[in-house]
Amino acid sequence: MKNEVTGLILAGGRGTRMGRVDKGLQPFHGSTLAAHVLQRLAPQVASVAISANRNLASYEAMGVPVWPDQLSGFEGPLAGLQTALRNCTTELLLTAPCDSPFLPADLAGRLHAALREQDADLAVAVTAEADESGDSYQRVHPVFSLMKASVLPQLSAYLDTGARRMDGWYKSVRVAEVLFSDAGAFRNINTLGDLKDMEALAARGRGPAAAGYTPDAMPVEQAQAIIRSLVQQMPPAPLAERVGLRSALDRVLAADIISPIDVPAHDNSAMDGYAFRGAELQPGAATTFKVVATAYAGRPAAVPAGPGECVRIMTGAVMPAGLDTVLPQELAAAAGDGSVTVAAGSIAPGANRRFRGEDLAAGAPALRKGKRISPADLGLIASLGIAEVAVQSRLRVAYFSTGDELRSVGEPLDAGSIYDSNRYTLFGMLRRLGCEAIDMGSVKDDPDTLRATLRMACERADVVLTTGGVSAGAADYIRQIMAELGDVAFWKMEMRPGRPMAFGRIASNGRSALLFGLPGNPVAAMVAFYFFARGALLQLMGADAARQALPVMRARSAAAIRKKPGRTEYQRGILSVNGNGEQEVRITGAQGSGILRSMSEANCMVVLAASQGDAAPGDLVDVVLFDGLA
To answer: Residue 599: which of 573, 621, 577 has the closest Cα?
Structure first.
């Protein structure tokens, strides 16, 4: 069911009753209203988009698409709904307002069941309410609706009449009403007074429970949404600095690169051949030209070509004045008398000519701010004659491992001890991201040492990563110390490998840093880094939203994969091409979270969603390639 549904958060109003600030961006319980709705909605649907008409960058920072109304003039939620139905790529669309942070965790499931059972076009939530006299009635909540994308024509016809009531168009479609028992879950915020009341509810514990904040069973999507929301509230990306072009590789652009020249700078030939006037080709007959000069790349023809004449030309050479067509040399019939014959119909006028500015016009942006510079980007920048670029300063990330059993490479192993591998994998992943990696070493399970190390890391870095010590073990002091130093939440993730994780902010001596407490098992630590920390680090680095997202592809499973529904699983895989030319993936074998060798053998991670069960041979599964994860 989930894969059939796109979620839509309606946030496109004027905000006149909230101090002219978008409702969705109002602060609420450590985040924003829209972020809380996103946390609730994301686990129920395949993807989420936001309908908004102002502050688009703030909404885009939440990591989901933002769709402004295609109708002008703030025409109400139906305008946002119409735009969403036009953009929706799934069969169904689920809507929720940006100001209802307690929406039900089973909203999509129950509406979907009613839609199918009653063969309806639209399912809407209703609750039992009481009027002032105490009489009960059913209240319809039209902004909490699940509908088929195929209802777009009926909605558009209704809007064409000038009407804008949210439920006014229902009479043109089949509607199923679904009764929910918790009316408070549909409570919305219309004024700043309502906002204060909701904050009070959340502070008493009503809010997080109703909003599905379940730290002992945290869905992956919800944790990722919380992280994006908190990172959005962090200070801006590091200050910019100018660096030489060779030093810019893997750095994040701090400003658009504007082309100072046309690329190419002149009309030129796309291949070796003969340049002539296309208008001189004889219709239905061969045409012969006299060769009067040769043009090389960087060395134009010495003489002009008159009527009936052509120029021998090389790839990249400037097109001689008046000539507009190039015949490839393999199609040319050259004679000993210095002439070339063009066969009838062998070439069209204007062929094989590259125009000035065709690739890039002077004054146009060549690369956008937030782009992480690749080797190809270096070449593009160099082709514009630019020697230095403005990039974000490197994000400083301090990291350390915890545990009495850890030994550094080169030390002898005694009974029960192991070598600390996590610091080396973290170093590699951080360096590939372009971060300044600050190794704080291995730290014993001693409260004073842990506290001092966390303080030192916080004062030296923008982000702190730890591995180990975030479970409930007797020696896991880091939980207590993190809580002392800041606002840190401890989660048990609904995922495998890796269940315990900590996330939040810590402070020391006037400095603050984002903190990720990753699991101690080597594979679990890498998985948690890739699927939780990586996107946050790129977001802090100022990288564009597309770069923050993990590159997911689909491949066929080479064999059966065992999986129980209820948690997200990340299994190590090897991607290859089968005999049919299709991408195929097989699991590396035992998937224990301490088997680092299997991570080294793998070239990808197979991502199995919480809702799915076993995968059969030949089934398509989601795959994230390790190569290029930086």
So the answer is: 573
Per DSSP, the residues of 190-259 read -SHHHHHHHHHHHHTTHHHHHTT--TTSB-HHHHHHHHHHHHHTSPPSPPEEEEEGGGGTTPBBSSPEEP
| Cα separation of the two ends of the chain | 33
Entry pTM: 0.60
- Could you state, in chain order, the average pLDDT of each consecutive group of 10 residues for the chain (630 residues)? 91 60 78 88 94 90 91 84 94 94 89 94 86 64 96 94 89 92 72 57 42 66 83 73 93 93 93 96 93 94 93 96 95 88 93 92 92 92 94 94 83 82 92 92 88 94 89 61 77 85 88 91 90 92 78 90 89 88 85 65 89 90 79
Query: Quick one: pLDDT at residue 4?
Result: 92
CB-based burial of residue 339 (10 Å sphere; 0-12 exposed, 13-18 middle, 19+ buried)?
A: middle
Strand partners, 146: 94, 123
Kindly give, in sequence order, each residue whose CB lies less than 8 Å from that of residue 241, ignoring residues fewer than 6 positions away. Answer: 254, 390, 391, 393
What 3-state class would DSSP assign to 562?
coil
Tokens of 76: 């109400």
Specify the fold of 268-354: Molybdopterin biosynthesis moeA protein; domain 3 (2.170.190)
CA torsion through residues 154, 158, 164, 169, sign: negative
| CB-CB neighbours of 559 under 10 Å | 12
Question: Where along the chain do the CATH 3.90.105.10 domains lie?
Answer: 240-262+359-392
- Distance, in Å, from the CA atom of 129 to the CA atom of 322, rounded to the nearest integer, reads 81
**Helix/strand number for the chain, H first, E second:** 16, 35
CA distance 227 to 27: 15
C-beta of residue 621 within 8 angstroms of C-beta of residue 555: yes
DSSP 371: P
Cite the residue boundaries of each domain of the chain with CATH code 2.40.340.10: 552-625
CATH class for the domain made up of 396-545: alpha beta
Tell me, what amino acid is at 268?
A: N
> Taking each helix axis from N to C terminus, what angle separates 220-232 and 33-41, rounded to the nearest 10 degrees?
160
For residues 570-583, b (16+ Cβ closer than 10 Å) or e, as one string?
bbbbbbeeeeeeee
Residues forming a β-bridge with 518: 467
Query: Among the residues of 541-613, which ranges form H helices?
Result: 545-548, 596-601
SS3 107: helix
Burial of 525 (0-12, 13-18, 19+ CB in 10 A): buried
CATH homologous superfamily for 552-625?
MoeA, C-terminal, domain IV (2.40.340.10)
Q: Which helix (H) or strand (E) holds 466?
A: strand 463-467
CATH of domain 240-262+359-392: 3.90.105.10
